[in-house]
Every structure is written in structure tokens, then in C-alpha cells.
């Protein structure tokens, strides 16, 4: 595949050379699934299931690493079916949910999850007052078991509502000992201590990666991109691909090695990768 930038080309070629020792990590919303107004309707691009199987045939392992609860990602991405196909081929596929707190593998097929953080119940009791004070009373509240996400995308003033809500939520989260994860017109409150950087580093270790490619679109992917830089310094071939979308953060683009145009661009990029990796591993 031809990439315009020589630095990105060199990184890409190194990643392709890592072949059977390559790990591919993929964010869900905004990367595999287009951003839509209703989070319960965010389905993956139609080519994604076959593409994940084709990738898994050629690399050490494929992982979806998402802020979503694992069960949601499995349902919206048809990922349990994908897992079945990949496991039948004796290849590796993992879904890490809630920023790495939940884990599902195509072999075990059960969700391993910690208990909800202690402060979450107290924080949830404050949510009605928080959204009222931010003049965002109709914000969509997405319960996630281990976390809660407050969405402003469907409000009349999504950006303004988000800006008013964020500091109030951050203050309350801190009081309850919880972490704040701002995203694309969403602010999420969850347990501290886990993030996608740690998730990526653990996958690399588990799969003895000699190459790692990760694609993401939002602030929650910054730690994964940062971890790839650290891995590169340790001699692992890495590439961070930003899925660019309308309200995605500039901060992620700035630290990406390559930028593509949303999930459509991610799918095209991964098809090119599959072609360049060549015939499937034995
Ligand atoms: O780590 P991700 O896979 O990117 O998940 C992050 C959050 O994504 C979801 O919200 C985003 O997508 C929605 C559907 O397109 C969109 O309506 C919303 O504005 C976006 O922020 C999801 O609802 C959250 O639970 C995830 O944490």
C-alpha cells in the first residue's frame, strides 16, 4: 500500500514485516463503527466481520479495545460470530471492554469483569442534579455497569452542553474517587487505574508482539498511541492510525503516524494491510 508520507511508509513497512508476530488493536466507535446519534445503533461497517477474520488469519492476534461494555461491542459488531469463525481457524481474537477492564476471548467466550467501583453508586445519585445544573437535563445517560456515560450529541446545543457538563462531572467524579474520560460529545465516569495504553501493553506481552498496529479516533485512544511510541523505543514495530471524523480530537491526530477518513478509511487501510501481509499464516 502506498502512503504519502515517507515516515509513515517506513513504519508501515516495518509493521508488515512483523507479519505473524503482529498484533492489531482496533477501537470500536468512530473506528470500526461510524459515529451515530444513538449509541445503541452504532453497528460496524459491513466489511468489518470478514476483515477481522482475514486479519486474524495473518497476524498473531486481533483485539477490539473499546470503552464499550464487552457485551455491547459483541452485539453491535457481530463479534461473537467473528470470534467463532476465528477460533475455528485456531487464530486469536480478544475483545477488551470498558477501556481494558473487561475481557472476552474467542476461546473462553465469557466476560471477565471486576466489580463496579465503590464510588459509582454515589456518583449516579448526583447525575440528575449535575445535568440540571449544566442546563443539559435531557442528556442521554448510558449506564455501563462499571461506569456511566453522559452524552450530549442529541441535545440542541451539543458542544455547549458538553462544555458546561464536563467541569461539573469532573468535580463530582473526583469527590467519589472516580476517573473522568471525556470523548466525542460524551463524558464518562469510571474506575481509575486502567486505560487503553495498559490494555495494549498487556496484549503485546501476552502475544509476544514484534509489531503492533492500533487504530482509534478519540481521546480514550491517546494512551494506546502513547504506549505504541514507548514500544517502538523498545524495538517493536508500531503504527498508530487515527480515524479522522468531524468532531474527533485534534490531539489524537497530532500524535498519530497516519490519518485515515473515518471507519470507511480504516476499512480500506486494513484491506490494504491484509493484501500486503500476503497469504494467510499456516
Ligand atoms: O472506545 P470506543 O469504542 O471509541 O468507545 C467510546 C465511547 O463510544 C460511544 O460513544 C460514541 O459513539 C456514539 C455512537 O456513535 C456517539 O453517539 C457518541 O457521541 C460517541 O461519543 C459509547 O456510547 C460510549 O459508551 C463509549 O465509551
UniProtKB/TrEMBL annotation:
GO terms for biological process: trehalose biosynthetic process. It comes from the Bacteria. One of its GO terms (molecular function) is metal ion binding. Its cofactor is Mg(2+). The keyword Metal-binding applies. Keywords: Hydrolase, Magnesium, Metal-binding. It catalyses: alpha,alpha-trehalose 6-phosphate + H2O = alpha,alpha-trehalose + phosphate. Pfam families: Trehalose_PPase (PF02358). The keyword NADP does not apply. It is an enzyme of class 3 (hydrolase). Pathway: Glycan biosynthesis; trehalose biosynthesis. Its EC number is 3.1.3.12. Removes the phosphate from trehalose 6-phosphate to produce free trehalose. Belongs to the trehalose phosphatase family. This is Trehalose 6-phosphate phosphatase. It comes from Nocardioides daphniae.
Amino acid at each position: 500500500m502506498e502512503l504519502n508520507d515517507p515516515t509513515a511508509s517506513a513504519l508501515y513497512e516495518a509493521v508488515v514485516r512483523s507479519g505473524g508476530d503482529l498484533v492489531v488493536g482496533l477501537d470500536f466507535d468512530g473506528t470500526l463503527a461510524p459515529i451515530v446519534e444513538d449509541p445503541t445503533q452504532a453497528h460496524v461497517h459491513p466489511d468489518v466481520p470478514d476483515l477481522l477474520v482475514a486479519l486474524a488469519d495473518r497476524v498473531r492476534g486481533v483485539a477490539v479495545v473499546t470503552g464499550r461494555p464487552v457485551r455491547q461491542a459483541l452485539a453491535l459488531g457481530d463479534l461473537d460470530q467473528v470470534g467463532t469463525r476465528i477460533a475455528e481457524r485456531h487464530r486469536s481474537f480478544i475483545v477488551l471492554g470498558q477501556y481494558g477492564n473487561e475481557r472476552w476471548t474467542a476461546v473462553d467466550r465469557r466476560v471477565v469483569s471486576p466489580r463496579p467501583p465503590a464510588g459509582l453508586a454515589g456518583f449516579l445519585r448526583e447525575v440528575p442534579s449535575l445535568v440540571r445544573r449544566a442546563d443539559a437535563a435531557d442528556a442521554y445517560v448510558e449506564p455501563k455497569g462499571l461506569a456511566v456515560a453522559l452524552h450530549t450529541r442529541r441535545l440542541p446545543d451539543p458542544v455547549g452542553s458538553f462544555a458546561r457538563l464536563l467541569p461539573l462531572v469532573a468535580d463530582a467524579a473526583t469527590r467519589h474517587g472516580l476517573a473522568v474520560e471525556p470523548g466525542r460529545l460524551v463524558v464518562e465516569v469510571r474506575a481509575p487505574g486502567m486505560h487503553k495504553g495498559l490494555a495494549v501493553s498487556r496484549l503485546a506481552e501476552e502475544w509476544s508482539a514484534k509489531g503492533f498496529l492500533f487504530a482509534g479516533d478519540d481521546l480514550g485512544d491517546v494512551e494506546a498511541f502513547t504506549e505504541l511510541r514507548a514500544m517502538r523505543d523498545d524495538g517493536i514495530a508500531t503504527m498508530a492510525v487515527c480515524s479522522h471524523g468531524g468532531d474527533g480530537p485534534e490531539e489524537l491526530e497530532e500524535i498519530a503516524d497516519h490519518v485515515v477518513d473515518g471507519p470507511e478509511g480504516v476499512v480500506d487501510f486494513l484491506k490494504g494491510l491484509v493484501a500486503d501481509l500476503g497469504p494467510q499464516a499456516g
